[in-house]
Specification:
402 residues; alpha/beta; four-stranded parallel beta sheet
Length: 402
């Protein structure tokens, strides 16, 4: 995929970290060959994480993130430092920029410990090496370079590229479920929350992945599903629907045709589908007064019939018959403390990186808070979870032991 057809969540996320005035922004600008970040001799010029999606040789599609100095001070500095730490939850590769004249400080070492704790591949960029008496050779733990002269910037790119090779995943959205020539039928209600004239991102990615394996894609609205089925000479290999119309689609579609949802596919692709299946059982255990967290990975204008804030709470209240409370988060916001919640229901995470989605899943597991997914929860409430897991027979056994 090139620059124009690779979404940010599918790009390698490269974060640049370090102390104020170590030259992070200068290294970022030299690394990208662009004036991406504001550069100044004044400490703390970068006040918020700066992100840029771009095509960068030899890496390909990436997102570059320049962060504020980790040693920023004062109440505002603490907020900036917290945002810098939040970036760690997203990045695939970390570049620690260190002033070569000062060497690694205790704060730098603390950052390296954070990288290691979160299993983030990292490299140290010893900037301002042109000010040393002798320009050192590339070290085991990092590369000596000069953002001012450009010396060894290419070596840093090569090192990051090698680290990136270890972050690639073999997971596919749907291609591993299909064979060349298969017909996959997408049931796509036109979503008011999607930008005018576009399909939402999960639908786009499913289409792209299916086409890459040589499958034939037919997309219809839910109202045209009966006509589509009648027009096909042979049944489709797989039907994928939007979670919002799971119930009506399941009633129209013959039991012999495999059915799942975009959200369930993304629970498998970005997160842990088995954990989501286990978590959905918590819907049957909710009690009066419990609080449910509903979290979306993207931010969009809320419609009057928004699935996350309107439809899901209504379905859950009707299904459980309990007096429940609901909290909502979106975008990069996800609570650090999950103990107030009896259940977390997350979207498919199409706008989140696999690392970030995985971190949220692990956080819930460590807090022993059940976590499920929009599509899995909706299938559970419509009594069709077993059917929606038909394409994944290895998971059907989990339904007997929840």
């Amino acid at each position: 995929m090139g620059l124009n057809d690779t979404v940010s969540a599918e790009r390698i996320q490269i974060g640049f970290f370090g102390l104020r005035n170590a030259g992070k922004s200068s290294v970022v600008n030299a690394f990208t060959g662009q004036a991406l970040s504001l550069v100044s001799p004044v400490k703390g010029t970068t006040t918020d994480p700066v992100k840029k999606a771009m095509e960068l040789l030899p890496l390909g599609p990436v997102v570059i993130i320049d962060t504020p100095g980790i040693d920023d001070s004062g109440p505002l500095g603490e907020l900036r430092t917290r945002r810098t730490r939040q970036v760690l939850q997203q990045v695939d590769i970390a570049v620690l920029v260190v002033d070569a004249c000062l060497g690694c400080t205790p704060a730098d070492r603390a950052l390296l410990d954070l990288f290691a704790a979160q299993e983030i591949p990292s490299v140290i960029a010893y900037n301002k090496a042109d000010l040393l008496p002798d320009f050192p050779e590339e070290g085991e733990d990092g590369i000596y370079l000069s953002a001012l002269t450009g010396q060894n910037i290419h070596a840093l790119k090569e090192r990051v590229a090698r680290l990136a090779q270890g972050t690639e995943t073999e997971k596919r959205v749907v291609a591993d479920l299909l064979q060349p020539g298969d017909v996959v039928l997408l049931v796509v209600p036109l979503d008011d929350a999607a930008p005018k004239g576009r399909l939402i991102l999960p639908q786009q990615q499913v289409i792209r992945d299916a086409l890459e394996v040589g499958a034939m894609v037919l997309a219809v609205r839910d109202s045209e599903l009966p006509q589509a089925l009648a027009a096909l000479k042979t049944p489709p290999r797989l039907v994928i629907t939007d979670s919002q119309v799971f119930g009506p689609v399941s009633k129209v579609l013959p039991e012999t045709i495999p059915l799942t949802s975009f959200s369930i596919l993304f629970a498998r692709y970005k997160g842990d589908l088995a954990a989501a299946v286990q978590g959905a059982a918590q819907l049957d255990r909710l009690k009066d007064g419990d609080t449910v967290l509903i979290s979306e990975g993207c931010t969009h204008h809320r419609q009057c019939g928004d699935i996350g804030t309107v439809k899901l709470p209504a379905w859950i209240q009707k299904y459980t018959g309990k007096a429940l409370h609901f909290d909502f988060t979106s975008g990069g916001t996800f609570p650090e403390e999950l103990s107030p919640y009896a259940l977390v229901i997350h979207c498919g995470g199409c706008m989140l990186t696999p690392r970030e989605m995985g971190r949220r899943t692990r956080q819930a597991a460590q807090a022993q808070i059940p976590m499920t997914n929009y599509g899995v929860a909706i299938a559970q409430m419509h009594g069709i979870l077993r059917r929606s897991l038909g394409p994944f027979p290895e998971l059907c056994g989990l339904l007997e032991h929840r």
